[in-house]
Amino acid sequence: MNTTPTATALDVGAPHAQRVACTLSINGGTQTFDIEPWTTLLDLLRERCQLTGTKKGCDHGQCGACTALVDGQRINTCLALAVSYDGAEITTIEGLASGDTLHPMQQAFIDCDAFQCGYCTPGQICSAVGMLAEGHAHDAAEVREAMSGNICRCGAYPNIVQAILQVSSANGVDETAVENGETHS
Amino acid sequence: MNRFSYTRANDVSAALEAHRAPSAPFLAGGTNLVDLIKEGVARPERLVDIRRLPIAAIQPSADGGIEIGALATNSAVAYDERIQSRYPLLSKAILSGASAQIRNVATVGGNLLQRTRCHYFYDTATPCNKRRPGSGCGAMNGVNRIHAILGASEHCIAVHPSDMCVALAALDASVRVTGGEGERVVPFDAFHRLPGDAPHIDTNLRDDEIIVAVTLPAEGFADRYAYVKVRDRASFAFALVSVALALKLDGTRIEAVRCALGGVAHKPWRDRDAEAALRGKTLDATTVRDFASAMMRDARGLPGNAFKIELTARAIERAFEQASGISLAAREDDAS
User: Up-side HSE of residue B27: CA atoms within 13 Å toward CB?
Assistant: First the structure.
């Protein structure tokens, strides 16, 4: 047998699993993670950060349960690869309150009885906060349209719309034509 | 999701270089691609993240139009003041699509390149010529309610799901791409393909190219336009059929008309012969009905989707009413 010392006869390695460093500011605290590229922001929040308020519903961007605020905008965290958001600022439902004082939207959801089972609620609240910041919805019909990315299988929609309008009117948004929630044709 | 490697590109040439590797698609907003990976429809070996490329600006173009960077998000475009005032048709079409969460992330370039929502394309347990060339078409003899009535082939009856692209087709936008053979500009009509015998190829973008921008010509039809979308629920649903209409009138005389249809074909559907025949005519119920019939003359229905032919004709009529403000007299068959 005559082998050259540099030749490679066999090279069986573990399947290549690339890991990537990713730094995120989550609810005001900065953390660095070493993650696999296929990790979604949703899974990172739930599995690595134990922030389980952000829910996994459909996992396909159709139900809105995973909605969180990323750099101030509401997005579906189930369709976001965490590596792509390196450096982003994230606010989840756990980060909305100030100490023991609930965010006005959280308080309004309680006041208006805007949920039954509560599973969609964190996504609904984060979506509503993002929606008000966008500033395009001014009455019940526009709120319904702007919130169509959040499904509530308990059907708490009338009270969700009411809660959102309660907060938006407190912020000075026109609340005329609020009742009955006529929809756009 | 399958395991894949990840490359983040900071400029266009680095993105194109990384994209040369086999099975290394671009990742922009990811609202379609990540879903396709979860479903096992896309199984990339590497993702080339292009979210940080400096091609997201919306700015005036040299010829008096507007150039929209490929990475501008749907929300950024739809709520841009210049788009809203000069191209309200585009703004309205974008806002009728998807949800706010998706629009905040999805990009213009990604919108053009999104895949069909055909159920059989998404179901890896069924044959699909678009997903696996040569395997057959599950939709042809299956549940084909959402499928094409125009421009389909025996190999594929999928439709392009976009609202934005329907408006871009009506506005005669163009697509600026760059890559292996330099930069070129593709007229919007020539960007997407009909399925023919190669339904796995959605567009005429070459493998070594990237979309840089979408350009709108100066004329935006801001005075008379309509986007009519018919769907199964009031919001957050793909179009069964949609109509983007841009109109110029002199009194009731039609000076110019552009009409693009969504939800009916493998690409936004224009019929320039039908449009040309309408110019100079008086806008009334008869001319509009004749125009709608002309648009539908090559339409072919399957058991599940034949209803779309009349639905599309009526959606076209409604679009003319909305765009012109002229009430088209009720026809006899409307009495019910």
Answer: 32
